[in-house]
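Hey,
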Amino acid sequence: MDDSEGSLVNTPTAEEIAVGGGFLSSLMEDKYSAAVAVIFAIAVPLVLSSMFLGKKKVKQRGVPVEVGGEAGFTMRNVRSSKLVEVPWEGATTMAALFEQSCKKHSHYRFLGTRKLVERDFVTGNDGRKFEKLHLGEFQWETYGQIFERVCNFASGLIRLGHDPDTRIAIFSDTRAEWFIAFEGCFRQNITVVTIYASLGDDALIHSLNETAVSTLICDSKLLKKVASVSSSLKTVKNVIYFESDNTEVSTNISDWKVSAFSEVEKLGQASPAPARFPIKKDVAVIMYTSGSTGLPKGVMMTHGNVVATAAAVMTVVPGLSPSDVYLAYLPLAHIFELAAETVMMTAGASIGYGSALTLTDSSNKIKKGTKGDASVLKPTLLASVPAILDRVRDGVLKNVEGKGGLTTKLFNLAYKRRLTSIEGSWLGAWGVEKVFWDAIVFKKIRSILGGDIRFMLCGGAPLAADTQRFINVCIGTPIGQGYGLTETCAGAAFSEFDDPSVGRVGPPLPCGYIKLVSWDEGGYLTSDKPMPRGEVVIGGHSVTAGYFNNEEKTNEAYKVDETGMRWFYTGDIGRFHPDGCLEIIDRKKDIVKLQHGEYISLGKVEAALASSKYVENVMLHADPFHSYCVALVVPAPQVLEQWAKSNGVSYSDYAELCAKKEAVSEVQQSLSKVGKEAKLDKFELPAKIKLMPEAWTPESGLVTAALKLKREQLKAKFKDDLQKLYG
C-alpha cells in the first residue's frame, strides 16, 4: 500500500529531486580538467563583464489611476488603459473560448497522458509496501479530437438523465478526463463544483450537500471514499467514474446509477443532444477552498471571471504559442492550476498530464530505470508552488555539498557570477554569460525538470527570495510570481519575465485594479512614505460573484462601488513600489498583540524562520496574555538525523530524536540565527519550540492543498503542546 498517494507534501524529497542521474557526478572527470575549468570560469566572466557592464534601468509597470469605491491608492497595469476582458472578440464564456480555440488549433496536439507499462510494489525497511510505476511515452490527442470528446460527453450527460439545471461535482486528482468533463459541462451550461481529492469526509459531505449536486464525477480510486459517506449525501443520483488501469470498481453504491466515463461518452456519441450555451454572467464554477479556517467556502466564479484572468495572463507571459508544452500536475480543483490550464488552452499549447509523485526521474512512484514526467515531456512552461521549488533548491545544494572539493568551488563561483548577472549588474543576464555557465555547470541541473523550461509560474503562497534566485540561476529561467485568490479567480498581480527583483508579485494584471486602503489600527497608511501601504483590495473583471449560500461572508468581503464594479477585500497588507509593483508585507488576521503591546506578524516571522535548513514546516503562536511567542516546528528529517549522526546523538527512533534537548537546542539556535539575519526583533523570535515528528499534510487536515497552514486546526490539535510551551 502506498501511503503517499495524492499529496503535494509527498512530492519527491530534496535528495530525490537532486540526485536523479547524479547531475554533478560527471561535471569534472579529473582534477586537471577541474582546475582548467575554474581558471576559464574566472577569466571569461571578467572579460564579459567589461563588455556588458551597464546601468540598471527601471521599467514602469503600473500607473496610478482614479476609480470609484472606497478612498485609497489605486494602480493599474501600464499595458492597457482599458481593462482586458476577453482574449479575442466573441470568446466571452468558457464554452465559447474552448470551442473557438479547438477550431483554431484543431490539428495541434492538446492533451497527453503517459501510458502505464507496469505497476509494481516494493517493500520498505519498515515492512510497508510502496507502489512503483513503469510509465511509457505520452499519448496525445489533438484539439479537434478533444473537442469531439467534450461534445460527446456533454450529450452523454443529458442522455444519462442528468438534469441540466442541477450541478455536477468533480472530485478527482488532475488528469485529462477532468478537463474534458469540465468543458463538457459548460456546453450544457451546467455549473461545476470542484472539490479537492484530499478533502476530508466532513468537508466533502458539506460541499456536495450545500450545492445540491445531483451528479458526481470522481476518480475510480475515490469511489470507496464516496461510498463510505453515501448515506449522508442527500441529492446525488448519478456517479461517473474515471477508469484507471488495473483498478477494480464496485458499482453497487446506495441506489445511485454508477457509470464509467467512457460509457457516458458513447451514449453522447450515439445520440447527440443540442448544446445549451452559457452567457458570461452565468456561474461556471463553485470552487471550494481548502478551508484554512473551518469548513470550506464555495466561491462562485462566472464564465466572465475565468475568461478575463486567462485573457490578462496571455498579455503578460511572453510568446505563448502552440509550440509551448505545459506539464500539468497540480490540483485542478485549485484556481492556480485551473487558470494556468485555461491559459494554455487559449494559446493552443500542449498539456501533458503527470503527477507530483512521478515528476522527476527519482520521484516516489517512479520505478528505477524509468524516466519521470518532466524528462519525457520536456516542458517549456511549468507551474509550481513554493514548497516544490524549495525542495529542488535544498536537494541540489545538498548534492553539491556532498561532492566537495573543486566541484563545489566551481558551482559556488558559477552561482555567484550568474547571480550578479541576473541581479542587473550586467546587461547580458540571459545572453552569452548564461550560455557559458549553462554549458559547464547548470545544464545537468536544468535536466531535472526536462531541460527546456523557458518560463515558470509560481503561486499559491509567497516564494522565498533565495529560492526564486536559485531557480533563476540553476534552472536558468525567469519566474512569474502570481498573486491572487480563489475569490479573484487567481487574477490580481503577476510579476513579469523581465523583472529581476525578488519578494514582489508584480503589477496588477490588465483585467483589474489593485487598491490599497489604509488600515489605521495596524499602522499601514496610503500616505506612508516612500511607498503607500494598506489593505489590498482588488477590483475588476476577475472578482467573483461571492460565496455560495453565504450572504453574510459575501457582504463582509465584497463591495460594489457606485459604477457597479465589484471589489474584494483580501485581508492582505501590501505596498506599492515606485514602478507600480506590489509587495505583500503582512496579513491582518496574522497580526497578534503581545502582553506589553508589541505587534507580531505571524506569517512574516514564519517566512523568515522557514529559511533554516532544519525547517520543513513551522507555525508561530503568539498569545496576548504572554510577552513572548512560541513555535511548533516540523524538522526536515534527513537534515536533523544527519546532525545527530555527526554529533554522536543516539536515539531509538525519530520521535525520540525530536524530543531530545540537544536537538531542540540545535534547531532553536538555527531559528535564532536566520531570524537575526532577517532583522526580526527579539520578541518576534520564539522563546520556546517543540519539534513535531509527524509531517503536516493535506490528508491530515493541517495544511491546505496549496500547503498553507490551517492555523485554527493546528492550534486545536496541538492545544496541549502549546500550553506546555507557555507553562
